[in-house]
Design brief:
By secondary structure, this protein is mainly beta. It is 11% helix and 50% strand. It has one helix and 30 strands. Strands 1-2-3-4 form a four-stranded antiparallel beta sheet, with no helix packed on it. A hairpin with a 2-residue loop joins strand 2 and strand 3. The chain is globular, with a radius of gyration of 26 Å. The N terminus is likely disordered.
């Protein structure tokens, strides 16, 4: 090569290298930023409640109830039409309702799996027979089973969507505990001392060991291994409990002040992570447990709390709605003067379904209450 061409060659070569490196850098930057921007856009669409289409217009039949969230901006609701029922998916962003399941029998309840991938529909074939149907979020039927029962309760396994505990009750409130394997369409009867068991691990359940012959306000919390039937006492005296992903919440009487109830949160090793107390209201034979829910993404426990202790029948001061950050150990007042009614927090933690039929919504940012159903 002629030496006189070196400068030109070097300039062209360096420009080429710069352009290639720049393109690669830009491509790498786009690849890194794309998921973040997509997530930001998704989050903005979900959290901008002012843009949501409200209220919900019922397409057909009479509104029955909202079942809960299946995504950050989608809920399920049911309607009744004569002796049949429909399950709809509603998108708050698009304002569209889509029927995903039609039942030829009245629907009693709908239970959404913790993963929000599967849905259980309990319909009443008669006063002594319940029909359980499992579908996915698109409406595809995965399983249908009929259970002789006067009343029926279910508990999803949060560690395995294919398993549920089914409690069937006769009219005299005698019960059977069944393990329903959705994937294999198999039912196994379990020998358990109590109904209302909850999953505490993939193959373990927990229950409060109430003594029917000696009624008490509290009882031991027992863990049972379903594989080998081994049991152990987790706590000696609780009023109620609930299990969230890798988190056990128990309610007990405050040891220093019997008029207060204590809420305690334990990890998988039963090490206490956080606790708080609130005023306690008594009923004739037990305690009032205010409604609550948990948002895993924000480590946030949301609950109602009375302003003072006393008896339920004479209490008239309303309830505060409080949010506890379990990671930081802090609490925040969301609203006060509310009724103690069921709640369901959205996956993003931006909104809360509220009401006996979850027919209202609270924007947790603006503290505004919306009516969800158009009369």
């Amino acid at each position: 090569m002629n030496k006189s061409n070196y400068p030109t060659f070097l300039v062209l070569y360096l420009l080429s290298v710069i352009l290639i490196l720049g393109a690669c850098s830009q491509k790498e930057q786009v690849e890194k930023e794309a998921p973040i921007n997509k997530e930001k856009l998704k989050s903005r669409d979900i959290s901008d409640l002012k843009q949501w289409k409200l209220p919900i217009s019922i397409p057909e039949g009479e509104f029955s109830q909202l079942a809960g969230w299946i995504s950050g901006n989608q809920v399920l609701f049911t309607t009744n039409l004569e002796k049949t029922s429909n399950v709809y998916r509603y998108d708050f962003v698009t304002g569209k309702s889509e029927v995903i399941y039609k039942s030829e029998y009245p629907i009693v309840k709908v239970r959404i799996a913790p993963s929000r991938k599967h849905i259980l529909i309990h319909a009443s074939k008669s006063s002594t027979e319940g029909l359980v149907t499992i579908i996915d979020t698109s409406g595809t039927v995965l399983l249908t089973k009929s259970f002789p029962s006067y009343e029926l309760e279910v508990e999803w396994n949060p560690y395995n969507d294919s398993e549920l505990l089914v409690s069937t009750f006769a009219e005299d409130w005698s019960f059977k505990e069944l393990l329903l394997d959705v994937q294999n369409a198999k039912i196994t009867e379990l020998t358990l001392a109590q109904p209302f068991n909850k999953w505490i691990d993939n193959d373990k359940i927990a229950f409060i060991d109430w003594d029917e012959e000696n009624p008490s306000f509290f009882a031991p919390l027992i863990e049972r291994n379903l594989e080998n039937a081994n049991e152990k006492t987790l706590l000696p005296a609780v009023i109620d409990f609930s299990v969230f992903p890798d988190l056990l919440m128990t309610i007990s009487v405050n040891e220093q002040n019997q008029s207060l109830s204590s809420y305690s949160f334990f990890n998988k090793k039963m090490n206490q992570q956080f606790s708080f107390s609130m005023p306690q209201l008594t009923k004739y034979s037990d305690w009032l447990i205010p409604f609550y829910d948990y948002n895993e993404r924000r480590n946030q426990f949301i609950t109602f709390s009375p302003l003072s202790s006393g008896e339920v029948d004479s209490y008239t001061d309303g309830f505060q709605l409080l949010a506890y950050n379990l990671k930081k150990g802090t609490s925040t007042l969301i609203m006060d003067g509310l009724e103690n009614v069921p709640i369901s927090v959205s996956p993003t933690g931006e909104a809360l379904l509220y009401g006996n039929r979850l027919e209202k919504m609270i924007d947790l940012g603006t503290k505004k209450i919306y009516e969800l159903i158009k009369e």
